[in-house]
Amino acid sequence: xxxxxxxxxxxxxxxxxxxxxxxxxxxxxxxxxxxxxxxxxxxxxxxxxxxxxxxxxxxxxxxxxxxxxxxxxxxxxxxxxxxxxxxxxxxxxxxxxxxxxxxxxxxxxxxxxxxxxxxxxxxxxxxxxxxxxxxxxxxxxxxxxxxxxxxxxxxxxxxxxxxxxxxxxxxxxx
Length: 174
Ligand SMILES: Nc1ncnc2c1ncn2[C@@H]1O[C@H](COP(=O)(O)OP(=O)(O)OP(=O)(O)O)[C@@H](O)[C@H]1O
Ligand SMILES: Nc1nc2c(c(=O)[nH]1)N=C(CO)CN2
Description:
Elements: E1 5-13, H1 18-31, E2 35-40, E3 44-46, E4 57-66, H2 70-83, E5 98-104, E6 109-110, E7 115-116, H3 125-135, E8 139-140, E9 145-146, H4 147-153, E10 160-162, H5 169-173
Antiparallel strand pairs: 1-4, 1-5, 2-4, 3-4, 3-10, 6-7, 8-9
Helix pairs in contact: 3-4
This protein binds adenosine-5'-triphosphate (ATP) and 2-amino-6-hydroxymethyl-7,8-dihydro-3H-pteridin-4-one.
Residues 12, 46-50, 57, 59, 92, 98, 126 line the site of 2-amino-6-hydroxymethyl-7,8-dihydro-3H-pteridin-4-one.
């Protein structure tokens, strides 16, 4: 068994019961061997980025402790997406669930199917705002800046709105 690492995930949904799908994805991840959910950000409603003609997303970020390697962790995230019947037709388009690996400790990976830190995370308000809540002091490897510094540079977008009743760690781990 390898040493447990801290990693950060970004989750999003903009089709169907968005909140339920995020909740179910988190519950399934926590039940997987080698993954323990340790912190959740607030839940945000966010305007779509990239492909604009699609419904608003719910997004949040999660901290996990994991003994899985980055490659096995990514495979597990993709499996959970499949279990939730993710349908994806358009790049950056609507999806029932999306789970991205944002950070894996202080590792930098540039593999064919896995880039860590996630290559677009420092330009995405729907990632940086929730991530800053739970990982503000963490340096984004290879960038020379912390999550908080990236988030501060972005200003305060109006289209990332915290929901009054977020998901709780207790709710998804018990
Ligand atoms: N850090 C990462 N997290 C998740 N997927 C990654 C990562 N790096 C590379 N990938 C690859 O990206 C592929 C496509 O991912 P996905 O469909 O979630 O992209 P997308 O959500 O449409 O766009 P984006 O990557 O901009 O969020 C995955 O199958 C995976 O192999
Ligand atoms: N607001 C928001 N926009 C997106 C999102 C997302 O999760 N939230 N995911 C995308 C696919 O990578 C593209 N655009």
